[in-house]
Design a protein that fits this description.
The chain has about 475 residues and is α/β, with parallel strands linked by helices. It contains 16 helices and 19 strands. α7 runs parallel beside α10 and α11 packs parallel to α13. The structure holds S-adenosyl-L-homocysteine and FE3-S4 cluster (F3S).
Length: about 475
């Protein structure tokens, strides 16, 4: 059978989509190639959020195509995901060696399309159409990589954490963002379907689940085509499981109802979710943090800007004050909660004064970490045509200043952990140094440590933090075990 190599650009949703495609192909008999040089099929799962991400994927494909054309003409090349969705046929016109362009609602057709191309029945395939029910098709996992699980059932999986896609799309239409166009309208899977997938993962050794979507706090608000359409020929399920139907749903958003249902899974230790929208932090969700022990004390709260004027231009749907209010309530519910964010610098019309409000918000909130992005105009988004586009030099300068502030705050926050004892979930060997192991705290900080073997993978271990590096903690479980 052919071997496949999938390279992923962009967010965790993209990572998850790639995993599901790889798992579908493995189920059909494909093997996973360790590198593109050894693969019969090379797929790039793309991101369109910033121009840089698009250029990276196109540049990579140009290099691969040049090599393949010269040395291995039978290799099949494909683009998947967000850029494939927004550019479609244009990608093949530009890169004629590409055989397959598969949009964001079509991942589950990858195996069939590759079969047809490999068998020579079809030459080029571009499929970026909408497909009702596609939100429920990202469900396969690759916990054991390419290797079949041992019969004894004792072998720990390669992954003790897993991502579960709960919805697709976004209807917020922030004026800078291409996601509503590449991922489509919000469509949510049913709770029973999601819980069944989580249960299955836990029965295979998964201890921590991250619920994924572009705007998870809007989960279930617009229903979902899985309520109306048949998926894989099956009848649609109830959106809410019967045990939850009797609860007063007026007080709990569908997302919190989902958290409740996942929380009941025995053997699951930790629940995370990403990405929420600040406007979705109603009292029911804050209260869930106080009520549900498996919901870890960690929140990724994308703020984008500290200036009300810019937030309005961005169509974010909250003010600085409301955002600060949410942070305060979250810290009231869990004092040690880790809060990270996304910030855009140089949005059209952003003045020095606006930017300074972002700096002051960062200092006021004391984020544990922040992902900072220079504004990148995306075609067909309203912000791309707004007056006052900020020159690149100023965007870079603001990026630099904000980064310094975030790093300084991060250093202080990480130093506070030195000497503390904290629980980590052991994930596996460190990528940088496989002789060491890594895990994560509940507040989502990476901890690197010695004195533990691979048998500790999947265990919740108490470690004593001995040192703090740049957004990494170093710990010693041996000290605690004495
Ligand atoms: N809700 C999604 C948003 C996807 S985009 C998620 O968090 O996964 C991720 C981040 O990219 C956004 O929060 C924003 O900070 C940044 N971003 C989106 N569009 C951008 C643009 N046009 N220019 C710069 N940064 C952008
Ligand atoms: Fe994009 Fe805003 Fe949705 S950042 S993903 S349009 S919440």
């Amino acid at each position: 059978m052919p071997s496949v190599f999938i390279k992923t650009y962009g967010c965790q949703m993209n990572e998850r989509d790639s995993e599901a495609v790889a798992a579908q192909l493995v189920a059909k008999g494909y093997t996973l190639a360790p590198s593109e040089a050894a693969a019969d099929v090379i797929l790039l799962n793309t991101c369109g959020v910033r121009d840089f991400a698009e250029r990276k994927a196109i540049g990579k494909m140009q290099n691969i195509a040049a090599d393949v054309r010269k040395n291995r003409p039978d290799v099949v090349l494909g683009f998947l995901g967000c850029m494939a969705q927004s550019r479609g046929q244009e990608l093949i016109d530009r890169l004629p060696d590409v055989d397959l362009v598969l949009g964001t609602q079509k991942f589950h057709h990858a195996a069939d399309y590759l079969d047809e191309i490999l068998a020579g029945r079809r030459d080029k395939i571009v499929d970026v159409a909408a497909e009702p029910g596609s939100e429920a098709t990202i469900r396969e996992h690759l916990l054991y990589g390419n290797v079949a699980r041992n019969g004894d059932g004792h072998r720990p999986p390669l992954q003790v954490t897993a991502f579960v896609s709960i919805m697709q799309g976004c209807n917020q239409y922030c004026t800078f963002c291409i996601v509503p166009y590449t991922r489509g309208e919000e469509r949510s899977r049913g709770i029973a379907d999601i819980v069944a997938e989580c249960r299955q993962l836990v029965s295979q050794g998964v201890k921590e689940i991250t619920l994924l979507g572009q705007i998870v706090t809007s989960y279930g608000k617009r229903g979902g085509s899985s309520r109306e359409a048949k998926v894989d020929g099956r009848e649609p399920e109830n959106f809410l499981p019967s045990t939850l139907d009797s609860r007063p749903s007026t007080t709990k958003s569908p997302f919190v109802q989902l958290l409740d249902a996942v929380h009941e899974i025995e053997g699951l230790e930790r629940i995370r979710f990403t990405a929420p929208h600040p406007k979705g932090y109603g009292d029911d969700l804050i209260e869930a943090y106080a009520r549900l022990p498996k919901l870890v004390e960690s929140a990724h709260l994308p703020v984008q800007s500290g200036s009300d004027r810019v937030l309005k231009l961005m169509h974010r749907g909250y003010t600085r004050e409301r955002f600060l209010g949410i942070v305060k309530k979250l810290r009231g519910a869990r004092s040690d909660i880790g809060i990270t964010t996304d910030i855009i610098v140089g949005f059209p019309g952003e003045t020095e004064d606006d930017f300074e409000q972002t700096l002051s918000l960062a200092r006021e909130v004391q984020f544990d970490n922040a992902y900072i992005f220079k504004y990148s105009p995306r075609r067909d988004t309203p912000a791309a045509g707004m007056p006052g586009q900020v020159p690149l030099k100023i965007r870079e300068e603001r990026n630099h200043r904000l980064l310094e502030t975030i790093n300084e705050i991060g250093r202080r926050k990480y130093d506070l952990f030195i000497g503390r004892r904290t629980q980590i979930l052991v994930e596996g060997p460190s990528k940088k140094n496989p002789a060491r192991m890594t895990g994560r705290t509940r507040c989502n900080k990476i901890v690197v440590f010695d004195h533990a073997g691979r048998e500790h993978r999947g265990q919740l271990l108490d470690v004593k933090i001995t040192r703090a590096g740049s957004f990494t903690l170093y710990g010693d479980p041996a000290i605690v075990n004495l």
